[in-house]
Amino acid sequence: MIVGNGVDIIDNKRIEKSLKIKGFKKRLFTLNEINQSKKYRNKTNYFAKRFAAKEAFVKSIGTGFRENINFNDIEIYNNKKGSPQIKISQKIKDILKQKFKLNNYDIHLSLSDEKNHSIAFVILNRKK
Predict the structure, then answer these.
(1) What are the structural domain ranges in the chain?
(2) Residue 38 pLDDT
(3) Which residues of 68-104 are buried (b: 16+ CB within 10 A; e: fewer)?
(4) What are the C-alpha distances in Å from 8 to residues 13, 46, 48, 120?
(5) Distance, CA of 45 to CA of 12 (rounded, Å)
(6) pLDDT over threshold 90, residue 102
(7) What are the tens digits of pLDDT across the range 18-53?
(8) What is the rounded CA–CA span in Å between residue 49 and residue 111?
(9) In the chain, helix, strand, coil percent, each to 5?
């Protein structure tokens, strides 16, 4: 059963400019995400998709970046097959338990990008 969904689209130029600001990456991305970026030629789109995914996720749970949720509480990675996945902190897991009474759930993530924009779509699904 779907309990939440979120979508976010970002102008890649906005991320490109922000990446030049000292401390931007460390504030918004985990060390794993930063290290994984080294494998990608187009760093702007790599980070833009992850930014959009984090925004889409907090929209899916209905909090935005409130309730003491930070960008680093959410990590975007690719599984062995290359599919994007979301890893969340214990803090967010606790919010899911309180807000949705969720102990058993799936988080589905879809990412896409073009030259100028990146988009992410998240579905939060309760398992039976």
Answers:
(1) 2-126
(2) 96
(3) ebebebbbbeeeeeeebebebeeebeebbeeeeebee
(4) 15, 15, 10, 5
(5) 6
(6) no
(7) 999 999 999 999 999 999 999 999 999 999 999 999
(8) 6
(9) 40, 30, 30
Query: For residue 57, what are its two tokens?
Result: 């996720």
- Can you identify the CATH homologous superfamily of domain 2-126? 4'-phosphopantetheinyl transferase domain (3.90.470.20)
Amino acid at 31: L
Backbone phi and psi for residue 116, each to the nearest 5 degrees, phi listed first: -100, -20
> Could you please report the per-residue DSSP string of 40-87?
-S-HHHHHHHHHHHHHHHHHHTT--S-TT--GGGEEEEE-TTS-EEEE
* Six-digit token string for 90: 């214990």
85 torsion bin: left (phi>0), alpha (psi -120 to 50), beta (else): beta
pTM of the model: 0.95
pLDDT tens, position by position, 48-88: 999 999 999 999 999 889 888 999 999 999 999 999 999 99
49: amino acid identity, one letter:
K
